[in-house]
Amino acid sequence: MDLLIDASASAIRLIVSGDGDLIEILLLSFYVNLTAVAIAMALAMPFGALLVFVRFPGRRLVIVLLNAAMGFPPVVAGLIVYIALSRSGPLGVLGWLYTPAAMILVQVFLIFPIIAALTRRDITELWENYQEQLLSFGVGPVRAVQTMLWEARFSLATSVLAGLGRASAEVGGVMIVGGNINHHTRIMTTAIALETSKGQLALALALGMILLVVSLGVNALVVLVEERRRRIWVSNS
């Protein structure tokens, strides 16, 4: 108990004092996670919407694989990206291995199916309600996608927050491709794992406290967005 109290006190001091190593880890964590979410969102939302409007051979298989990929093991994703970025891999020429770029790539790999699958689900529900109206106005596929994405903006915000939550909690994949290199590729989750194994509980607890606050903040935003969406739905019905 004394160890926990002492470590917690030291962790709070690190946070209050703005410890340099702590700030550096936080900034890199936010950069990697937010960049990955932004890229995944830009790719996954149109893809998920197009799955609703475009019919092609193997579409059902793509949807099944997309849903299955939502639970893709992070360490397997890390291994796949590691092989692709290794010197003999197809993307080895990029020289991204053990860099933040590789960590972002594996995060996108994990977040993309979450946002795409949830986007497809939300757009499908909306399309069932608006299909006849949009078709009567002669709206084409591209315009229909844009309209549905706008109408589903609150639901899609929840999907993005779900992706952010997945990225913030990721350890295995980013550790494989990033190497957890000090002052270069060390983020909150990998630093917590390393510092705990070294017995350096103060920094691990400080990062854990901040990660917990981030997690609670993301979940609070999800609740607020859902409440906002329900109010708008009730007012429009």
Give the helix/strand layout:
Elements (H helix, E strand, L loop, with lengths): L1 H16 L2 H34 L5 H11 L4 H12 L14 H37 L4 H11 L1 H17 L2 H7 L9 H11 L2 H36 L1
Helix pairs in contact: 1-10, 2-5, 2-6, 2-7, 3-5, 4-5, 4-8, 5-6, 5-7, 5-8, 7-10, 9-10
Determine Rg (CA atoms, Å).
21 Å
How many helices in DSSP terms?
A: 10
Q: Proportion of β residues?
A: under 5%
Strand count, sense and barrel status of the largest sheet are: none
Secondary-structure-based class equals mainly alpha
Kindly state the percentage of residues in helix: over 70%
Shape: globular
Total beta strand runs: 0
Helices and strands, in order, run as HHHHHHHHHH
Average pLDDT across residues?
Answer: 85
End-to-end C-alpha gap: 55 Å
Q: Report the uncertain regions.
A: none
How does this model look, in words?
The chain is an all-alpha fold and 237 residues long. It is built from ten helices and no strands. Helix 3 packs across helix 5 (100-136), helix 4 crosses helix 5 and helix 5 packs across helix 6 (141-151). The radius of gyration is 21 Å and the shape is globular.
